[in-house]
Amino acid sequence: MNLGETIKEGNEASSVDRAKAMIYLKCHIHEGLKYEYLTIKDPLALWGNLKERYDHQRTVILPKARHDWMHLHLQDFKSVANYNSALFRISSKLRLCGENITDADLLEKTFTTFHASNVVLQQQYRERVFHKYSDLISCLLLAE
C-alpha cells in the first residue's frame, strides 16, 4: 500500500496516507491492543509503541530456539511426523529471529540425528543425495 513512510521518523506523509496507515494498523492488531492504543492518532507513534513493546522478542526467542535446535534428535520422537513438526516449529522461530535456515541445514540436522544404531541407514539416505528436505522427509515417512 506504499504506507511505509508513515512510520518513519521525520516523514512528510500526507494526512490521507497517515489515516490509511492508522486504519491498516488498527485493523491488524489484537483486539485488546486496539483498546489500549485507542487514543493514539499518529501511525508513527503507534508503531513506536508497538516496537518498544515487542521488539525484545528476538532476544527472548533466539536463545531458546538455538537450544532447541541443538538438542533436537530424530530418535527422541515416536514418529517422523512429530520430528518434522518440531523441526519446522524450531526453524520457524530461528527464521523469525533472522537466522538463515536452508534445506541443506534441515537435511544435515536430520542426518546427524539418526540413532547410532542406524548409521548404515543414515549413509544410505545420504547416498541418495537429497537436495530438498521435503524429499527426504517424504521418503522417511514412507519408510516408517
Written account of the structure:
- With 144 residues, this protein is mainly α.
- The protein has two domains: 4-54, no CATH class; 57-143, no CATH class.
- Helices cover 64% and strands 0% of the residues.
- It is built from eight helices and no strands.
- The chain has helices at residues 15-27, 31-36, 43-54, 57-70, 80-96, 103-112, 119-127, 133-143.
- α4 (57-70) packs antiparallel against α5 (80-96).
- The radius of gyration is 22 Å and the shape is elongated.
- The N and C termini lie far apart (47 Å).
- The model has no long low-confidence stretch (mean pLDDT 89).
Keywords:
single chain; mainly alpha; 2 domains; 8 helices
> Average pLDDT across residues?
89
Q: Sheet bearing the most strands, described?
A: none
> C-alpha Rg, in Å?
22 Å
Q: Summarize the helix and strand pattern as letters.
A: HHHHHHHH
Rough outline: elongated
Distance N to C terminus? 47 Å
Query: In percent, how much strand structure appears in the residues?
Result: under 5%
Total of DSSP H or I helical runs spanning 4+ residues: 8
pLDDT < 50 stretches: none
Count of discrete domains: 2
Number of strands: 0
